[in-house]
Write a structure and sequence with these properties.
By secondary structure, the protein is of the alpha+beta class. The chain contains 13 helices and 15 strands. The chain has helices spanning 13-17, 38-48, 118-136, 155-158, 162-165, 201-210, 215-231, 277-291, 294-309, 311-314, 318-333, 351-354, 395-408; strands at residues 4-6, 25-32, 57-61, 66-70, 77-79, 98-103, 106-112, 193-200, 241-248, 262-269, 339-346, 357-363, 372-379, 382-389, 413-416. The strands form 3 sheets. A 7-stranded mixed sheet has the order 10-9-11-13-14-8-15. A 5-stranded mixed sheet has the order 5-6-7-2-12, covered by helices on one side. Helix 6 packs across helix 7, helix 7 packs across helix 8 and helix 7 packs across helix 13. The relative contact order is 0.19.
Length: 423
Amino acid sequence: MEEWYKLDHAGKLFPAVAGRENSSTYRLSMMLTSHVKPSVLQQALDSVIKRFPLLNVELRNGLFWKFLREKETRLMVEPESTYPCAPAALSTENGSLVRILYHGNKISVEIFHALTDGGGALEFLKTLVFQYLYLLGENVEDKEGLILPPASFARYAEAQDSFKAHYTSVTADSRMPEALQIPGTRFSPYGHNVIHGMIHASRLNAAAKQKGVTLTAYLTAILIMAVYETTLPFNNENRPIVISMPVNLRKIFPSSSLRNFFAVINIGVQMKEGMTLDDVQGIVHAQMKEKTTKSYLSQAMAGSMKYEKNLLSRFTPLKLKDMAIRYGFDHFGEEAKTLTLTNLGRVDIPASMAAHIESMETTMYPTAKSPMNCAVSSINDQLTITFARNIVESDVIRHFFRQLAILSGLDIRIVSNDWGMGA
């Protein structure tokens, strides 16, 4: 009998707003020390997907909400054939919302955001790569308990909509002014250019500590200065530069859910002539400290859920609901931010597995109004900063990496997929 699942609270947003210029599909990748063998990767996937049944589903329409239904077809590994974070097959019968890709020594998972967030996707990728190495005959074992055992699916806890479990009705006033939006020329044909900057993780952390801020605050401040200095001629209305940041709520509220469980905070700076990087770092650090407290995030969750809890909205037909979600997303979400920076943090894997992993990448899809986004992750003491963009102009990215190299004194290795560069 086919299983079906309700979308979690955050997951209800993405089907309504997804499209060519907002694929709502992100990517996590691990680079191995040897070329990937597709047949072994397929065996690993066949074994692991039973452990993650919520990823082998298709999206279906109900009267009031969309829902997820177990797929009848097998999830297959594929060679990379297009740009990263391309749209998922939302409306196709048996269309997959997950792609398992290989290219050279890289294994990537691309997941439609309605299914899970970066935290859930990371657990899947770690388990998949561990199983792949095991089937290759490598001597890997999980003494540290960092991999989800194949037969341990805890249906209630891992499939839980944790937003509902931790919901309170106390909301805060979250209205934000319109933020500066980065202008640019869309790639034709449309696609995503991706630039990765790789840097020594612990040395970069030490550079941030010297400034008295977290690594995320350090990178955010440099990014705000890069946006300010490269878009100054276009920001006639002096709009604030706002960096939107997903926060993993599992670190604050008890949850072992493998579905979406995150909140978004906006870190905004109204730039003035003469402001220095130290000024911006101070503002960013203070806002991050305030907006990552349990009480603030609890209010942010409540604000996000109040429309779903409204009795009238619950019984509004799906088409009208989708129109309302799109309006809210455009006017209160997209227009209130300049770009997104997401930091997955340090990825811990078993020591026996680490010798087979070179690096890790996280890629956050750009959108129509956020044509450039940034994602950070680290593994084996190598940190990768990834920019994905759908516009030709790369001034912000070049300025960011140049300033980061100067300020930290560290070497940065840059690689790109070169999408749009030959047009």
